[in-house]
Structure formats: structure tokens, C-alpha cells
Predict the 3D structure of the following.
Amino acid sequence: MWKSVQPTMPVLLGIGFIEAALGVLNPLIGIRLSENGIGSDLVGIVASAYFVGFLIGTLTCHRIIDRVGHIRAFGVFAVMAANATLLMIVIQHPYVWIVLRVAAGYTLAGAFVIIESWLNDKATEDNRGRIFAVYSVVAWGASGISPLALNIKDPSGTLLFALATICIASSMIPLALTKVGNPEIGQRSHLSILQLIRISPLGVVCCFGAGIFISALYSLLPVYITARGGNAQELAFLISIGTIAAILAQYPIGHIADHYGRRPIIIGTMILSSLLSIAFTISSDMPYLVLLTLFFLLTGFSSPTYALGVSQATDYIEKRDFVAASSGLLFIWGLGSSVGPFTVGLLMVPLGPNGLFQFLAAGFALVALFALYRVFRRRAKSAAEQSNYVAVPVGQGAVGAPELDPRGEAVQHGPSPAVKEGFVE
């Protein structure tokens, strides 16, 4: 196992530092803005700004990577992200923070592209699953533990920003010292959003919805907690328990979807997520233990939405097109993430704090209804058919297998039929 993971250790350490910084930064920004009397609409805009930058980064950062290589590009992105975070201490104004969060989103998008490219390059068909499983544990673990730093006494309001900056800057050290060579830079294929919609409408809807729901939930949760009289410590434990639920839920839900079909699981998890969101709106003064329990269940059922969407889409995409499809689906997720906090922040002005969960309840229900509609539009692939291509959550890669005809022989393709014929699942 160690021999398999060793070539990827520099990026695994790097992602650990970055996720630790993001885990504390995202709730910290919402807390600071709320404590300063900033309305939920502006808090949502600041949160969305990060994902706008992330979107731009996914489209353009590859030019820097192609020009100077993965290691040096990662150093550039890490320094720029650290500078943007440090400047939030120097200039404490929400409109300046919008610009700084765009910059941070752009540069960290570049860092994530490098990390996942590195892992895919160093992994083989035999160890890819193990490598990306380790990657997932590192990423989720770091982002889940770091919010506990919100319990640190910080009268000046600058200590946690400084610690997050140190983490981001430290992420470049393992890559700068590695003896492992840069991944090769090859030609890039491309699938447009319209092509992806034709290939898998439900996959696109799930990825877009996951971006909206999860970004809105975590970005505006500080506003909800502050409004109900909570503090940073309660928020920290809430985020950590939600991360634990997400880690625990990914594999079982994915495993069930592999055996019983993607669409029934999508419908079931979305309905449960909608009902749990409604439960949040019933009582604003529920005991904290009840709040923790509901949040644990909500994040457990809703967090695999992106993974289910990618898996649904990948069932209809050939292996050679998966990298292009993965980039397109990540862009769609980023598009949803940039829209979510801004939209929900505006809704919370007239609706109050419960507007967050009212929106989530409606959104989850709509995804469930769309999945039900797709059930009647086309027969789902069987478990054997959908296992020809295996998709996993963001940051966990994919392993493809050859497509077989009814006689069990490998099918030879020209251009991907899903793209060439406008195939719709």
C-alpha cells in the first residue's frame, strides 16, 4: 500500500493543508460578517464570489500549468491564495473581501486541477481506487477537523485568518521538495455543457443542484446559527458532525446505487433530504442536540448528490471522454456553487433564517421530481451495464472498463456515441 501511495504523498500533504484552511475559512468569514452586522444577502455574495473565481479558474488555469509545469504552477497558486487570505486581515471591508474571495477561488481551482491531475498520472488501474480513497479521507478529514479551531479564543479576530494563511502557504512545501517528476502535459479533449445535458440530463441536474445546495448550506449556516443565538463553538461542532456524516455516507450510498440503480437512490436521498430540511423550519428553538442530529442526517443523505450525478453521467460516457466530462461536470458544480449562496442570501432577507432550509427543502424536492420524470422517459441501465464505467465523488477519480455487447465481446467505438448522436439517458 505504501509503495502505491508514496508517489502521491506530496499532493496528499498539500491537499491536507489546503482543506484545513478552507475548513476554517468558510465558516469564519460568515461569522465575522454576521458579527459585524452584515446582512445575509451580502454574506451570500461574499460566499458566491469564491465559487465565481473557482469557475474562472477551471476554465483558464490550465494555461499557467501548461506553461510552467505542475509544481511551479502549484507554487504560484498557493502564494496567490495565501496573499488573498492575508489581505482579508489588512482590509476588513465586505466589498474588498468579494474581490479577494474571487482571487482565492481562482487560484485554488488551479491547485485542485494540479492535485487531481497528479493523482491520475501517478495512479494505475490496479491502485487507482486505493489512492483516491486515501485522497478522499485526507480531504474530508482535514476539512472536518479544522473547523474545531473556531473554539480558539481570538479577541483580535485575526488569529484564525493568519493560521489559514499559514496552512495555504505550507501546502507548497511538499511539492517543492519532491523528487517525483511533473505529470506529463497532454492534449485536452472537451465536452460542452450542452453535450453533457444531451448525454445525461439527470447527471447534470444533480451536479448543478449539489453545487447550489451544499455551498448555500455551509456558507449561510453561520447566519442561521447566529440568528438562533448560537456561537462559534456550536457552529464548529455542527460543521464537524456534518463532515463525519458525509464521510460515512459516501461509500454505502454509492454501493447501494451500484447494485440497485442510480435513479431510485437519487429519488430516495432527495426526498429524505427535503423532509429533513422541512424539520429545521418547524422549530427555530429546538435543542442543540436535536439540531446536531438533524444536521448529521441531512448532510449524510445530501452529500453524495454530486457523486451520484457524476456516476449517472459516467454510465453513458466512454473512458477516453471521462476527463473531459469530469471537467465539465466540475464546472457545472462550480456554477451551481456560485449561484447558491447569493440566491439564498437574498431569500433570507424577507424569509428570515429559516429561508435557508425552506429553499433547500424545495430544491431537493425538485431534483427528486426531475429524477422521477427521467424514470418514465427512458429505461435505466442495469447494474451490469452501469458498472462498465465507475464514477466516484469529486476528488476521487474514476476507473473505466471496456463496454461489452450482449455476447460479452468488447465494443469498438469511433467518437463517443453519446456525444455523436446526442444520446439522452
The chain has a mean pLDDT of 80.
